[in-house]
Design brief:
- InterPro entries: ADH-like_C, ADH_N_2, GroES-like_sf, MDR_fam, NAD(P)-bd_dom_sf.
- This is Alcohol dehydrogenase-like C-terminal domain-containing protein.
- This protein has two domains: 89 residues, Medium-chain alcohol dehydrogenases, catalytic domain (Quinone Oxidoreductase, Chain A, domain 1); 112 residues, NAD(P)-binding Rossmann-like Domain (Rossmann fold), CATH 3.40.50.
- It is 18% helix and 27% strand.
- The chain has five helices and ten strands, in the order βαβββββαβαβαβαβ.
- α5 links the parallel β9 and β10.
Length: 231
């Protein structure tokens, strides 16, 4: 693992097979990082505390987490200079030299996922993530439809964020609402809730539709899931 104050000259770096160099653009400050900075507590039943101590960040080591980076030098056929990539275990550093054994953990970001004229449906659209997804989709020229849990949130989506359509899922039949507001079907579903919502959306997705799973908040505390999509 890289150490603090460790440097390398990437301009003159001779890359091995499948290696590449990243300029790190965004690093996620996730709450779980705190748990990697302290010793395990045996009395607590948490997965992080069941991990071996080598998983913890030692003094002098670089903290790791999710992030987005740009490829600036490459000897890997799967990545070209200028590509944006995403990884769950990225060092908190300006630049990263990725060795061949770690290359498969990096995923290219598909900048063409959002296509002009297509329809995207966002559940929990009034939440922080849903708001951002909706605005980006509008910039890309998509038809944006969202669901929320109150009339005030629906009003915000329609009048402030300029969604093409929005509805209060507590007051409508979801299948009928999707048929009404997405008459040409759903091309992208941005998933935040899971459960019955996902089940209904699957029946309204177009052929070759895409589903981006951010979360399934309705499912986290259940012990006996009934929906088929959770079996």
């Amino acid at each position: 693992m890289p150490k603090v104050d460790e440097y390398f000259e990437f301009e003159n770096l001779n890359l091995g097979e499948n290696e590449f160099v990243l300029r790190n653009l965004y690093l996620f400050l996730d709450p779980y990082v705190r748990l990697t900075l302290k010793e395990p507590e045996p009395e607590r039943e948490q997965p992080i505390n069941k991990a071996p101590s080598r998983k913890l960040v030692q003094i002098g080591q670089i903290i790791v987490g999710a992030g987005v980076s740009e490829v600036i030098k490459t000897n890997n056929p799967n990545f070209k200079v200028g590509d944006l990539v995403y990884a769950l275990f990225l060092g908190w550093e300006e630049y990263s030299h990725i060795k061949s054994d770690a290359a498969t953990s990096f995923l290219p970001i598909n900048k063409d996922l959002l296509k002009y004229g297509e329809t995207i449906f966002i559940s929990a659209a009034a939440g922080f993530v849903g708001q951002l997804v909706g605005q980006i989709a509008k910039i890309k020229g998509m038809k944006v439809v969202g669901s929320a849990g109150s009339d005030e949130e629906v009003d915000y989506l329609l009048n402030e964020l300029k969604f093409d359509a929005a509805f209060n899922y507590k007051k409508v039949d979801l299948d009928e609402a999707l048929y009404k507001y997405c008459p040409n079907g759903i091309d992208i579903y941005y998933e935040n809730v899971g459960g019955e919502t996902l089940e209904v959306v699957l029946n309204n997705c177009n052929l070759f539709g895409r589903i981006v799973v951010c979360g399934m908040i309705s499912q986290y505390n259940i012990t006996d899931p009934k929906e088929k999509n959770m079996e």
